[in-house]
């Protein structure tokens, strides 16, 4: 339950890696207003990391269970902390409070502060997922390119992967070659790197976790909830098999 004047945001890591949830929740709380409390949740069903269409499909079910848990506790909004935004529309069907995906939030934030941006994500095989989201979110005119550093999600925190240096190099290439004014980081596991990269590069480097938390606060402050008219109405009552 929330305290008077407190906003509670349910930040869900759709993969099953608790250490990544802790990193994400820490970054989310650091970016939040003083009156906002972050509840970090880890999916209990799905995959250790989300690096493809199959991973996204099975992760969505576990993520939706954490949406239900957050609703039961009275959370004011949900953030899906995976750059593929898995199950986003299903979560919006399920919940009456705002639900934000970090990819959608980051792309909108980038479009507010720059005419063009590029996305830098993890593995090359996931680039197509980001490219699909760019089209789905109407960002084709803003997003110049989706790039990858070919570092696995579960290797992001390993010193030998030199993630900061690799990311910095790819971001410099994007700045030099893509004609952009901002960069979107394409993984929630990069959330703690955005500020340093932005300082180093001299341009906005946007972490979707922070962007989604701040947008969620704004929606809650405006008293806006998810529309239950049309396709985002609550799911129809019927027999279902769940985990």
Strand content: 15-25%
Main β sheet profile: 4 strands, parallel
What is the CA-CA span between the terminal residues? 26 Å
Class derived from helix and strand content? alpha/beta
The residue ranges in which pLDDT falls below 50 over 5 or more consecutive positions are: none
Q: Tell me the Rg in angstroms.
A: 17 Å
Major sheet: order of its strands? 2-1-3-4
Find the count of extended strands (DSSP E, 2+ residues). Answer: 8
H-E string? EHEHEHEHEHEHEHEH
Basic shape: globular
- Count of alpha/pi helices: 8
Average predicted local confidence, pLDDT: 96
Helicity, in percent?
40-55%
Protein architecture, described:
- Helix 2 runs parallel beside helix 3.
- Strand 3, helix 3 and strand 4 form a beta-alpha-beta unit.
- Helices cover 41% and strands 16% of the residues.
- The longest helix has 20 residues.
- It is globular and about 50 Å long.
- It is α/β, with parallel strands linked by helices and 243 residues long.
- This is Aspartate/glutamate racemase family protein.
- Belongs to the HyuE racemase family.
């Amino acid at each position: 339950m929330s305290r008077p004047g407190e906003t509670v945001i349910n930040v869900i890591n759709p993969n099953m890696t608790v250490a990544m949830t802790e990193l994400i929740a820490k970054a989310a709380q650091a970016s939040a207003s003083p009156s906002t409390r972050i509840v970090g949740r880890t999916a209990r069903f799905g995959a250790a990391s989300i690096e493809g269409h199959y991973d996204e499909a099975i992760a969505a079910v576990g993520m939706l269970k954490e949406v239900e848990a957050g609703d039961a506790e009275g959370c004011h909004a949900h953030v899906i902390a995976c750059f593929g935004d898995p199950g986003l529309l299903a979560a919006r069907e399920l919940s009456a409070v705002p639900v934000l995906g970090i990819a959608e939030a980051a792309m909108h934030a980038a479009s507010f502060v720059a005419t063009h941006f590029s996305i830098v994500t993890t593995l090359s095989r996931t680039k197509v997922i980001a490219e699909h989201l760019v089209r789905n979110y109407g960002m084709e005119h803003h997003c110049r390119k989706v790039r990858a550093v070919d570092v696995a999600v579960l290797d992001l925190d390993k010193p030998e992967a030199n993630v900061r240096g690799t990311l910095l190099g790819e971001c410099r290439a994007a700045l030099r070659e893509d004609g952009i004014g901002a960069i979107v980081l394409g993984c929630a596991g990069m959330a703690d790197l955005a500020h340093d990269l932005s300082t180093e590069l001299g341009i906005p480097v946007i972490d979707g976790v922070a962007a989604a938390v701040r947008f969620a606060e704004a929606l809650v402050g405006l008293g806006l909830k998810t529309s239950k008219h049309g396709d985002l109405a609550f799911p129809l009552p019927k027999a279902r098999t769940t985990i």
